[in-house]
Every structure is written in C-alpha cells, then in structure tokens.
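Efflux RND transporter periplasmic adaptor subunit
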Amino acid sequence: MKRIISILIIVGLLAIVIIQLAQNKKEAENRVYKYDKEAPVKVFGEVVKDISEIQNKTFSGLFESMNEVKVSADIQGKITQIFVNEGQKVSKGQALLKMDDQMLQLQLNVLETKLGGLKKDEARYQTLSNEDAVPAITLEKTQNAIATIEAEKKTILEQINKSTVRSPFNGVVSMKFCEVGGFASPAVPLFELINQSELKFVINVPEEDLYLFTENQHYSVTTGISPKSISASLNQVSSKGGMGNSFKVEFALDNSNGIKPKMNGELKFVTNQSSNDALTISSKAIIGSESNPEIYVVSNGKAVRTPISILSRNGDYLSVNGEIKKGDTIVTGGFINLFDNANVIVNQ
C-alpha cells in the first residue's frame, strides 16, 4: 500500500512539473517577437505633381530700390540752406543742403594771411642764406612753418567742402528730415535717397519651393501698371529662414516701366522642361541607384516597387516619367521595414 502511495506521489509531482514547463514554454513563445508580414508599415509619402503645376506657380512680392540710403552730414553745423524737396530728382554730386561755414571761412582767411607772410619771409631768407647772411636753420624753420600752415589750410578747405551735403548717386529724394535753422551732425539722417532706375523684386518663398530658384532658370515679373512682363535675374537667396520658415529671394531688374518702390508684383516660374509627360517627385523617394531608379507607389494600401526614368534634377526634386501618373502617392520616408507589396499607412 505504501508503495502504491509513493508511486502516486511521484506521478503527481511529475505531472505538476510537466504542466509548469508547458506553461513556461507558452509564456516564452508569447514573449518572442514574431514578424508579421501583413502588419501595415508606417511610411511618409507625397503626391506626384505634373510639371505644368510648377510652370503655373506664382509668387507675390514687393519692388524695392536697389540703392536706398539715408544721407547724413560728415561734420556738424547749423543748416543755412536746403536746395531740394521731397520727390525731386537729383544727380550724383548735386548739393542737397548747406551748413554755416562762416567760422571756417574766417579761419581760412587767417591761415592765408599767415601763409602769405611766411612765403615772403622764405623768399627773403633764401636770398640771405645764399649770401650766408642768415643761418640755414632760419630758412628751414620758415619752410616747416609754411608746410604746417598749408596742412591746416587743407584741413579747413576739406571741412568747408563737407559743409555742403551732396547726393551720393543719381536718384530721387524720397524723404526729407531737416529744416533751415536745424542742426546737422554725422549721427542724424537728413535725407532718404532712392535709385529708381535699378530695382529689386523681393519675395518670401516656402522651404519646399526653394528648389525652383536656380541661376539656370528664367523668371518674369508682372505689375498692375503694365501688361508687359519684366525680365528678372536671380540676385540672391537668403541663407537663413524667417517667419514661417520662409526664405527671402531677391531678383534684379531694370526699371523702364515707371515702377516705384513698394509697388506689388507677381513672379511666375518658367521651367526649361520640354517633355509634356514629365512629373515632379522628391529625390528622397528614389531607391536603388540613379542609373536604375525605382520608387514605391502606394496602390490599394500596398507599396508597389516601380521603375522610373529620371529626366533632370532641380535641387532636391526630380523630373521623371515612367509607370506613374499625376496624383499617385509615393513613399518618401520609412523604408527600413518596407518591401514590395507591403501593407502601408501613409503620413503626408
């Protein structure tokens, strides 16, 4: 009897151990990651655009003067005359205002009187020195005094010249900040001058559209005052973004249409692309090499590996054609777990 009980206890313990091992195995299997090919992969995507959408893209902006400066005096003084008014055209070097130079003129007269006397002394000492009637040092001191007076005279003449404020370039007086009887100094602006013959057109471009603007492209600007388009050349693209992560882009143009600064205008992008079948995609969508490029096209919730042909590159964007069409969604990010015909969830 005792033997039977012992056997039953052993069998029971074995059963408990086997059951526990089975449970442990099940838990371990549940913890092991099992790759599910049917699980959707989260990816980033974009919609394929027709090249004509780029051709019709326009940007609004403002015309600004290429040369726009606030003119100040180089010396300080009381304003005695103003020769120009707001809106008046001026030429380079033309006098804008005159400051009181009476004291400078008096100083100049004193120096000229001294200089005249010293030059007479120099002539007399030169004759006497040749006859050894006076020491040579006397002639030398007189000549040094003449050089000093001439340097002082040159300084006074320069100050007298600077008492007249002149235009630095051909332009228009857009603003006047001074009046007769006022005080001018180097820190105080007197006039604002603009050059209307050379303008720049300034637009703010979103980050995603910067690729449109390169030196090899052509641009046309239109205004509300003339139906004719104006040819514009790229001047510079800001290296730092501003509000809303937009970038300032400037274009240089000749003003032969009577455009004034701060007028509104529109710039239309014109591409050199000649293919009517060309589509535009981001270069981030390319997988493989550019000699045999492929992309993932999302169709019915699946990423389908699709071959394409690259026609041209423009910055971070490519002009392509192939087995894709306008409006298709393509994958541009999240390639790590992606494979052909994988189920995908697209974040655009």
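thats it. DSSP finds four helices and 22 strands in the chain. The domain at 55-67+195-270 is CATH 2.40.30.170 (Elongation Factor Tu (Ef-tu); domain 3). bye
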